[in-house]
Amino acid sequence: MTLPNGVWGKIARVDVSDETTEVIEPDEEVYQKFYGGESLGMYFLFEEGIVDPDIEPFDPENMVQVMLGPTNGLAAAGRSCTVTKSPYNFAAVSRGGGQTPRELKWAGWDGVQVVGQADDPVYISIVNDEVEVRDASDIAGKNSRAKEMWFKRNVFGPHEKKDDKTLGEAHMTDEWADLRPLDDDFTLGEKRNAKAWSIGVGGENQVWYAALGCDGNSWHGRHGEGAVLGSKNVMGIAVRGTKGVKYHDKQAFLQWTRESQEAQRASTGWRFYGTTNSAGNALDVGCWPMRNWQWVYLNDPDAVRPLDGMYLTKATSVKGKACSGCAQQCYYTSRQQSDKYTESPGEIDDYTLDGAIGIMPCWEMQGCSGGVHGYFFPQGPKDADYFEGLDPSDTYPGNRKDMLEAAMKMQYTDELENKYGLDTIEGGNNIALVQELWNKDLITTEDLDGIEPYWGDVDAVQQLLEKIAHKDGELGEALAKGTWETAKYFARKKGELGEDQDPQFDAEEIWPEEPHVPSDDEIMYYAMACKRYGMPAHGVRSERCRNALAYLVQYRPHVHTGGNDSIGANHYISFVGSAVFCLFSPGPDAELINAATGWGHDDEDTMLVGERAWNLGRLFNIHTQEIENPREEWDAAHMMPQRWFDEPLTTGPPEVHGKTAHRGNQQVTEEGSYENLWADLEDYWDDRGWTTDKGIPTAAKLEELDIDDLTEDIAAQYR
Ligand code: SF4
Fold first, then answer.
1. How far is the CA of 97 from the centre of ligand 1 (A)?
2. Is 328's C-beta closer than 6 angstroms to any atom of ligand 1?
3. Which of 168, 213, 212 is CA-nearest to residue 191?
4. 580 lines ligand 1 (CB under 6 A)
5. Domain spans of the chain, in order of start
6. Which of 149, 356, 431, 584 is the most exposed place for a label (fewest CB within 10 A)?
7. Given this chain, do its domains 11-252 and 265-534 carry the same CATH topology?
8. ipTM value of the model?
9. Is any ligand 1 atom within 6 A of the Cβ of residue 97?
10. CATH superfamily of 11-252
11. What's phi and psi for 480, nearest 5 deg?
12. CATH assignment of 265-534?
């Protein structure tokens, strides 16, 4: 027995229905097989029967898990990983950062699992061993940051008191006071002791893509964790931990961490510009979504400037920030104020948030909160003709102030999504879909309750976001279910899809012939979704970005970092998510795991942890959706946006110009050609030890991974 080195050996399972907490103490063998985070969370989805198709995502039985791993505590990247059944009814796994994961570890827990459903709004307070379900009716209906601050004002460690000396404004440091924005709702509150995960109004209203925020600036943003927590009437989890952490070989762990931090400090691009350092690169390789993915390249360098990390940090950066222990500090607080408006007093009350401080969007948010809405050209008059014929090949028609304005619109949109606690990627794709449908006259202003979403119009984007977050009317209800369901809603409204009809296609038509798909005068054509979920800003329509197969093989619609069809890379990424560490930082290995736990694992063991997550995830998605024929229902060409394959790129370098996405395991191909995606998929499944006709893990594979007890009965039903 090596516990409690690296892991404490206990997880708090909080049932908010009866306000009880059960201490779950997995065997050490379970920890050694799954570590924590992603893999251990998937284990519990099977162990507790959440995989059962009869359990709906918003049922009280569903479990939201915020999980840690053996590296948490003093590691050079303090992260957490959420695992639940998504409102989209697939496995939801999302990584986030901030300071709260470390706080939970220091409180003596390897994770929190929330089940049940409270009658009234509550929050969970964790102070070391004490776990309480408390009334949160005072904070219900507030945005995620206001909730976070409220939690911090109400949760204290054993020796902390809520008096002026401890928490009074007079005792705030100057730096803290500087960071305190004008609007209380946006206060960041870094210096409070307790840390918190919190949801926004979107989570309370169960918007399918509502996120779970951490410390106001890091998000478990993919797949609707915030919505599931909201369905339980839980506003957040506040944590104060004072126990510290114990490692098997503390010196070895700290030495590994020091070396990692040195590498982080040397990573100047990340350190000075955060993920925006990759913005230029993303544009070079065609990973930039513009106007609902009509384009993925900008050709004029001037148009790119507002996206560039150097430009943004100079224009808006206030302070670099980091997850606990990380010297890379890849994200920034930024002041959201355009000098255009500073020079034009009286107009500052528009989308500049009065100079309030928020988080600078990462490069992917720049695409999904900016490019997809068409912010990067001057908006000009609200006249569709103004945009007629304008494309990214044109010389940038604006000036420096227009660039800054574009950046401000992007930041403002991102900040609104943060405020409401919505995933910026799915949210951005969703609204961009509505913009394109309206701009192409496939839907009307009347369909949008009077909103006119011209490209680049941040006010219209805000109006739509508010409808979504509050589920305002039939339109808000429809849009709150994400990109795919939004397209279905409008397709039904326009009579393109029957009331009970799903846009499924006959397998005989799909393989090996061209799939039958909607044409570009049909609404479903414009849903830029992979497996029914809005795609990240890693477009497939480029020569160097991910290919179609890479998106198709993800066990959930896609991991945050986009598609990847390398089995080794798949497993490594899931190992990192189980360790629980950060993918942006120099990665963990068996040496770090052993220093933390004393388990004596090698790199093969660490990869097996990732492989278990992949096999569990695949079976989870098949079983919970009761997919009898994955080729038709899940791993099919129509699960990807048809635009990838139909529309040749109109911009970009010669090697991609005029070409479409390849339909197999390649990069771009000539327009109209068709490769056999099925053959590539079959090879991939075979390499994984899955059946080649359905992609179900074989009995031998499950036995090899030592998860057959957990999964074989389910797998046998589908082979
Ligand atoms: S690199 Fe960025 S996301 Fe990763 S741990 Fe460091 S600050 Fe957090």
1. 7
2. yes
3. 168
4. no
5. 11-252, 265-534
6. 356
7. no
8. 0.98
9. yes
10. Aldehyde ferredoxin oxidoreductase, N-terminal domain (3.60.9.10)
11. -70, -5
12. 1.10.569.10
